[in-house]
Specification:
The structure is a single chain. This protein is α+β, with helices and mostly antiparallel strands. It folds into 2 domains: 32 residues, no CATH class; 87 residues, no CATH class. The chain is built from 5 helices and 6 strands, in the order βββαβααααββ. It has a 3-stranded antiparallel beta sheet with strand order 1-2-3. A 3-stranded antiparallel beta sheet has the order 4-6-5. A hairpin with a 4-residue loop joins β5 and β6. The mean pLDDT is 88.
């Protein structure tokens, strides 16, 4: 006998809207509150230069080949030299970027949201587990 359990929470997909002005992109996320079911918007301002740097790295990738977001993260770390600014070695920084204290400061504004913007522009496919495919 199979027992079904209803899990309380988001029943749809996260929706992201992208707007832009001369210098910035605005990424608006729609998130459903787990207990109330209310859908709230979170807005993030991402400088266009952050997206341009990620796009330059992606432009060096062969079209329709698969890379990971960790590949891009390492390229960004070498470009910006964040680990040197924070006074730690590159491997420690790489690990902290994914789940440590540098996640909000570096991962989201310099990698995650730029990838979501490039996906919205259909320049890349950004899939589960950090899979990135250059489309254009």
């Amino acid at each position: 006998m199979e027992e079904k359990i209803n899990i309380f929470g988001w029943k749809g997909q996260d929706k992201i809207e992208v707007g832009e002005d001369n210098n910035n992109y605005e990424v608006i996320e729609h998130r459903q509150e787990k207990h109330s079911g209310e859908i709230k918007k979170n807005s993030h301002i991402i400088p266009k230069v952050n997206v341009q740097v990620v796009k330059q790295i992606i432009d060096q990738m062969e079209q329709h080949t698969t890379h990971t977001s960790k590949y891009l993260a390492r390229k960004l770390i070498n470009h910006y030299r964040w680990h040197e600014k924070e006074g730690i070695n590159e491997e420690v920084f790489m690990s902290a970027l994914w789940g440590g204290k540098y996640r909000a400061k570096y991962y989201f504004p310099f990698l995650y949201y730029p990838l979501k913007i490039l996906e919205d522009k259909r320049i890349i496919y950004y899939g589960g587990r950090g899979q990135i495919i250059r489309l254009k």
